[in-house]
Structure formats: structure tokens, C-alpha cells
Amino acid sequence: SCRALGMPVIYTSHAYRKDKSDMGKGALFCDPAFHGEVMVENTHGVEIYPAIAPKPGDVVITKRSYSGFFAT
To answer: CB-hemisphere CA count at 13 Å for 68?
Structure first.
């Protein structure tokens, strides 16, 4: 409906950098040797669900915290 009305559609994706420098204390619990790559950008599991995937022209913002509004 928003697209049909010309309104912007914006997605947020929660993912950390590959080096986990932005993970904070959470990095202590995400040892790749034990847990694998958890919530790391460009890895399996951080994609937006295909049924609601962005369309051309939509905006996708990668957030580094759980809140979609933190540091905005």
C-alpha cells in the first residue's frame, strides 16, 4: 500500500561487522569456533525474509544495535 501511494519503504537489518568491533560485550558469547558467524553482515541468517523482501527503490539500513532507532 505504501509503495502504491509513493511513500518510501524502509527496512532495518540488525547485523554486526565481520570483525565484531561493534558487538560490545556480546562478542564474548559469539566465539566463531563455537557458535559460528552469528548475526554478521553478509552471512546466512541476516537476510530479510523473502516474502517481504525489499523491492527496487526501497531503502535498507544496517543497524548495529537491537533498536531500529538507536543513534538515529
So the answer is: 6
Q: Are strands 10-14 and 59-63 parallel, antiparallel or unpaired?
A: parallel
Q: Is 35 helix (H, G, I), strand (E, B) or coil?
A: helix
- The C-alpha atoms of residue 16 and residue 54 are separated, in whole angstroms, by 20
Q: Which residue has the cell 562478542?
A: 27
Pull the grid cell for residue 6: 509513493
In DSSP terms, which residues pair with 8 in a beta bridge?
Answer: none
Coil, helix or strand at residue 59: strand
What is the rounded radius of gyration, in angstroms, for the C-alpha atoms of the chain? 15
For 55, the grid coordinates are 523491492
Q: Looking at the whole model, is its pTM more than 0.70?
A: no
Does the structure show a pLDDT above 70 at 29?
A: no
